[in-house]
Please model this.
Amino acid sequence: MFDTETGLDELFKAAFRRYPTGVAVITACSPDGPVGLTASSVASVSVTPPALSFSVMGSRSARAIVAAPSFVVNLLGPDHAALAHDFARAGRPRFTPQQGWDVLPTGEPVLPGALATMRGEPLHRIPVGDSTVVIATVLSVDLGSGGGRLVHHDRTFITHEGTR
Model:
């Protein structure tokens, strides 16, 4: 039974910690330089036309991505657990040469080693509480050569090789 008066937010977070999801790093070019964050809320919305959605909270990187005219969703594989950690926490290294980043001709950072990368433009930005849901049209898709899986479950990144 749900407690509707106290603790509902904690129960809600606990419920979603039990639900494993894929992992992506969403990147954009801002007036202050490249920005990015780890997201586990990326979902397919439509095939025709290609569209996706994701939700972000109000961090500096999230605000820059929501305001950007375009962005890249980099779907991560098992070799990217450390990268997912770096982009999930403030103050961690980002966009280093060791992480393998490149830049598209349109200016967005892109991870060539990702399972797939999708460049998109926002169609709708919907504020919901302290988050924003972005629905975006997909302009291009590049499939990487890798395989395997990286999932986020109970605050942990898990690969086919085990927990990292």
The mean pLDDT is 91.
